[in-house]
Structure formats: structure tokens, C-alpha cells
Amino acid sequence: MSRPVTRAALVEQLRDLGVRPAGVLLVHTSFRAVRPVEGGPDGLIEALEVALGPRGTLVMPTMTDGASVFDPASTPTLDMGVVAERFWRRPGVTRSTHPGGSFAAKGPEAAAICAPQPLAPPHGPDSPVGRAHDRGAQVLLLGVGHEASTTVHLAEALFGVPYEVAHPTVVVEGGVARTVPIAEPDHCCEGFARLDGWLRARGQQREGRVGHARARLSEAREVVRAAIDELERDPLVFLCAPGDGCAECDRARASVAARE
């Protein structure tokens, strides 16, 4: 196995990549790609915090399956990775209350970013990812591609894509738990990988290494603008083609006809 990258080296890599001190940074990560690093997942979190400085705000998705009552103080994440799972449990971190699409944040903007939001869409303009975008956030992808980026879902919501899929989610209203459908522009998200080419062509994506992982850094507003420009040409640009065998994208395509 490779030698662990020190926290100091991680900070230097992040700064060389272009992480902005005192900014808002939305991070999606696969620790399997980043490791080994000094201090493990916590060491990576601490390096991110140092790179941002005390006036910066670190944000990560902490989403769950919505199949049971959500408690932001105890419900574990689902498929968000060990870094996000460790992050929301750390002292001083705020976690939002959406029953399926929660985020966690630490820093001066954390309370505003994690304030209560509408149930649908989970990644709309009045959501943590939307509020991070409005605050000029950068999006950092560590060992993952744009297919993991919630900022592209924000672009879909802002554009008003014609597809929408509802997921049953447990919510608590008046002290009573019940299951309600929460609609969102959902699909397999593999098409989001096209942002690599679009952003590179615009000179709007910085790439390098953080730990042992490939890293991508972009401005959230530029990601959204690039995505919307392509959606204006083809509102279904992110969906797999009919006949590709993708059940999730087929379901999204079917929803278009159902809404017409």
C-alpha cells in the first residue's frame, strides 16, 4: 500500500488545487480513493477545515433512505461514504432536517445553509445545495465524478427538467409519522459525467490530486450554468438513451409522458 499522505501535504494539495480560504466548500468524496492519509477520514476532514480557515464553511451531503423516521442527531447516512458519516458526528457540525436529503455543515454559514427547507425538490434552490450555490460555493469532488454531484441536481431543478420521480419518504407532522411521496428529478446520474468535458472546454474545472485521489474543483455557479446551457439544447441530455437498459432513466422518461 502507498505511504499515508500527511495532513500538511493534504492542505497543500487542496490549496494548490484552488480551494478558497474563507469560502463555502461542498465536498463529495470516496475515501477509498483518497486513502491512505494521516489520521484517516478525520485527518482528511481536518485538512479541509485548515484549507478553508476559520472563516470558511465546509458542507457535505448526509442523505438517508427516508424509509424510517429521520433524526439528524442519530440517523446514519446511506451511501455517502465514511468521510461524510464521520463529519456530521463531529463537534460543532450542524445537520439539516430533510428526511431524505440532509446535509451537514460547519462554519459561519452552517446554520443558514442547513436551515429547514421544503420537502421537494430535495436539491432545489431553497435547499442546502442551493444556498451553498447562492453563497458562491466551490464544489470539490474527491475520487468521485460529477455523477455524485448534487449541484447538477440543483441545475435540473432551476431549469425545470420535464422528468420527475416520486420516492416514498417517512415524515413527521404534528408528532405523527406518515409516508409521503417526495418528487425529484431522479435518474441514474451517469450522464452527469458529461460535465467534465463541458467544464474543461470552458476552462472552469481545476484537476489534480488530493491524497491519492483524482480531484476536481469548480465553482458551483459555473457548474449550474454549464448544465443549464446544455439542458436548454436538450432537456433530456442527462438521461440514458432509450433501449440502453437503464431502468432509472426509463422511469424518468416515462414520467415526461405522464406529466404532458
How do the strands and helices of this protein lay out in sequence?
Blueprint lengths: L6 H11 L6 E6 L1 H4 L5 H13 L4 E5 L20 H7 L5 E2 L7 E4 L3 H4 L14 H7 L3 E5 L7 H10 L5 E9 L2 E9 L10 H8 L3 E5 L2 E7 H14 L13 H13 L1
Parallel strand pairs: 1-2, 1-5
Antiparallel strand pairs: 2-4, 3-4, 5-9, 6-7, 8-9
Question: Please, could you describe this protein's structure?
Answer:
By secondary structure, the protein is of the alpha+beta class. It has one domain (7-259). It has helices at residues 7-17, 31-34, 40-52, 82-88, 110-113, 128-134, 150-159, 195-202, 220-233, 247-259; strands at 24-29, 57-61, 94-95, 103-106, 138-142, 165-173, 176-184, 206-210, 213-219. A seven-stranded mixed sheet has the order 3-4-2-1-5-9-8, with helices on both faces. Helix 3 packs across helix 4 and helix 7 crosses helix 9. The model has no long low-confidence stretch (mean pLDDT 96).
Salient structural properties:
single chain; 260 residues; alpha+beta; seven-stranded mixed beta sheet; 9 strands; 20% strand
Task: Please summarize what this structure is.
With 260 residues, the chain is α+β, with helices and mostly antiparallel strands. The protein has helices spanning 7-17, 31-34, 40-52, 82-88, 110-113, 128-134, 150-159, 195-202, 220-233, 247-259, and strands at 24-29, 57-61, 94-95, 103-106, 138-142, 165-173, 176-184, 206-210, 213-219.
